[in-house]
Write a structure and sequence with these properties.
The complex is a heterotrimer. By secondary structure, chain B is α+β, with helices and mostly antiparallel strands. Chain B contains 8 helices and 8 strands; from the N terminus they run E-H-H-H-E-H-H-H-E-H-E-E-E-H-E-E. In chain B, 31% of the residues lie in helices and 29% in strands. The longest helix of chain C has 15 residues. The chains are: A alpha/beta, B alpha+beta, C mainly alpha.
Chain lengths: 371, 217, 91
């Protein structure tokens, strides 16, 4: 089978996100100004621990409440959705997350308050959200760590092409909790240093942040489109990539083929880890020579399962607004010269390659174009 | 209507088997270094996936409502000194990753689903929409008694895997998805599993607008 | 004479990492822990870091420090003796 990117294009009718800076436009402006939402905070919230870079929503504590304090954030995001009978047969919804309500499960394990239980399992949480938002029953749940949102976009695209769907909603969120921060700290990648994606430094660190986003996809038309989408799963090691970088290439090469002739900039995954950051940057620089590369996780933190769509929404804001934020938190020397540490004008570009990677050597790439 | 033909069906029905017994029964499938980390669900998924032999060109779809529930609760119990292994193992879709990493088997497309009432319909859609020449639809749960009666785990354990393609010759059955005006419908993983295990036909609305037909030859 | 700390570490390695078919006494003091021999990987190393902190109160802060400390059982014993808190002598 040819390793071709998923095509033909699907139109992005609408998209937006919520980060600690606000919606996509506000987040893009904050990142262009070089601001960080990350601040050093105790890794286990109320239980203390090392100070690590975290970016919860303003006023939200790491420890989950019942009901969760992030629900109003989702209410606000849903209020901006285009009107449609979401969740019926012709308007499927794809909900993606890495963690769903695992913060509530952590809270229940510690305080045994049964009020947390309705948020603890992914399907119970999403069923509650479905009712809260008035959606029908055609709501699919996908969870594959940090490529979750990309999977939702790809399946929504296939629903439009293959099924009865007229429009499809991809809805994603991840809110940090001691469950998640404790785990990444135990893996020694959430360390007491602010992240500097793609920068050459003796030790790496990520930051973690809250994020939520949506995209409404429709059948092809003018405007912004997802013109190509690919996946690849190395299945080499849970936390490490193949040292030769072939895993990254396997996902990027079909998009490079599809993007031939376009003037591109690149939004990479770039969490602030060293080895994966280097492999990713080198693969991108090789396959897309001359294209500026950015990551925004130095400003927002890694928003985990939601990152693919949060960052897509910011990229759209950057294309519409005429300027892309640089790689906040990073300064030369970087792994490759293509890393843009300062904002740059987007008017010269007609496409963005967006890449995300996850545990298990999962890779997802898409091509955002404007015609 | 979209249809794929079933070329291989594998099921695991461990009943009330405890994890140690599953390990003893299935550890021969894996090298010792990998087996020591496998969960019960990982062993069950390994048992059903090995005969299907996932390949890089396949589209792989995995469905589990509760995922790695035992690792999840053991990880929670490890705080404040969180276990990195249990954290890693608890993250969906760990069970299939445990198997494929042990085999060093890359796969191009991998769609892990959660959900409950419509999980089978959505996972089947993903498998049947895949442009890959062959799709593998698999899933399972591990039986866990969660602490505090939190209803955060399955009370039964099982696993299944189907190999699907557009080629009818040599197939043992078929899986079809058709449009329906019915706005309701559900089909859970345990019900789908028992139909596969017993080679029983299904014809029902499995999600709003989605009729699922499972037939055997 | 065998070093009781090294033996304790070998037992800790086997139990923490569930090395069911490995006799702790058969682990050589200077054998590489990660990569060859026992075929331990980076996640095993991190799990050992947690176990060492629980058992001995010795914190290994970064992945770079853990790589050095976990070179072998002998290296790990020396690291623990150097960094153990005064109220928890490792023996």
């Amino acid at each position: 089978m040819s390793n071709a990117a998923d095509s033909p294009p699907v139109r992005i009718e609408a998209a937006d996100c919520r980060t600690p800076f606000g919606d996509a436009r506000a987040t893009c402006a904050a990142l262009r100004a070089g601001r960080r939402a990350l601040a050093l905070q105790p890794v286990l919230g109320a239980a203390g621990g090392d100070a690590v870079p975290l970016a919860p929503l303003p006023g939200r504590a790491l420890d989950e409440t019942a009901p969760p304090a992030w629900l109003p954030c989702l209410d606000g995001l849903v209020a901006t959705l285009p009107e449609a009978p979401w969740g019926d047969a012709r308007h499927p919804v794809f909900v993606t997350s890495s963690n769903f309500g695992v913060g509530s499960l952590y809270a229940f394990a510690h305080d045994h308050d049964p009020a947390h239980l309705e948020f603890c399992t992914p399907f119970a949480l999403v069923e509650g959200l479905r009712r809260r938002f008035g959606w029908g029953g055609n709501v699919a749940l996908l969870s594959h760590a940090c490529v979750s949102a990309h999977l939702g976009l790809l399946l929504a695209s296939r629903a439009l092409r293959a099924g009865p769907a007229e429009r499809a909603l991809v809805f994603t969120f991840d809110f940090i909790s001691p469950f998640v921060t404790g785990g990444f700290h135990a893996l020694k990648i959430l360390n007491p240093e602010l992240p500097a994606p793609y920068a050459v430094r003796p030790t790496g660190s990520i930051g973690l942040g809250d994020g939520a986003a949506f995209a409404v996809l429709g059948k092809a038309g003018a405007g912004f489109s997802l013109s190509a989408q690919t996946l690849h799963n190395e299945m080499h090691h849970f936390t490490a990539n193949r040292a030769d970088g072939t895993g990254f290439a396997a996902s990027l090469e079909p998009v490079a083929d599809a993007a031939r002739g376009r003037r591109l900039w690149l939004k990479g995954h770039g969490t602030g880890t060293l080895e994966a950051g280097r492999l990713e940057a080198e693969a991108l620089a090789r396959l897309f020579p001359g294209a500026p590369l950015v990551s925004w996780k130095g400003g927002l933190g890694h928003t985990l399962g939601s990152c693919g769509l949060v960052e897509l929404a910011i990229a759209l804001a950057a294309m519409r607004g005429g300027e892309a934020p640089g790689t906040v938190g990073s300064a030369p020397p970087c792994f490759v010269d293509a890393v843009a540490t300062e904002p740059f004008a987007t008017s010269a570009y007609d496409g963005v390659v967006l890449a995300s990677n996850a545990f298990g050597g999962a890779h997802a790439t898409c091509l955002l174009t404007h015609d | 209507m979209i249809e794929r033909h079933i070329h291989c069906v594998q099921t695991e029905d461990p009943g009330l088997e405890e994890p140690a017994a599953t390990r003893a029964r299935l550890r021969h499938l894996f090298p010792p270094g990998a087996a020591r980390r496998l969960t019960q669900l990982g062993f069950l998924m390994g048992s059903v996936l090995d005969p299907v032999k996932p390949a890089e060109e396949d589209g792989l779809v995995y469905a589990s409502s509760y995922g790695e529930s035992r690792a999840l609760h053991e990880y929670l119990a490890s705080f404040p000194m969180a276990s990195p292994t249990l954290f890693q193992t608890s993250i969906h879709p760990s069970a299939v990753q445990q198997v494929l990493v042990a085999r060093q088997q890359p796969v191009r497309e991998f769609f892990p689903f959660g959900g409950h009432a419509q999980i089978v319909a959505h996972a089947a859609q993903a498998a049947l929409w895949s442009p890959s020449p062959r799709s593998i639809l698999c899933g399972g749960e591990e039986r866990t008694l969660p602490p505090g009666n939190s209803r955060t785990a399955s009370s039964i354990g099982f696993a299944f895997a189907l190999a699907l393609s557009a080629v009818a010759g040599g197939s043992v059955g078929s899986l079809r998805l058709l449009e329906t005006a019915d706005a309701g419908g559900e089909l859970t993983l345990p019900d789908f599993f028992t139909a596969l295990r017993d080679r029983r036909a299904l014809d029902q609305t499995a999600a709003p607008g989605v009729r699922l037909v499972l037939a055997w030859r | 004479m065998s070093d009781p700390l090294k033996l304790r570490l070998k037992q800790l390695i086997v139990s923490t990492l569930k090395l069911e078919d490995v006799d702790p006494a058969a682990i050589a003091d200077d054998a590489p822990l990660i990569g060859s021999g026992l075929s331990l990987d980076s996640i095993d190393a991190l799990e050992l870091v947690v176990a060492v902190e629980k058992e001995f109160g010795v914190k290994i802060a970064s992945s770079e420090e853990s790589r050095a400390a976990l070179t072998s059982v002998a290296h790990l014993a020396a690291y623990i003796r150097l960094h153990a808190p005064p109220d928890r002598p490792p023996g």
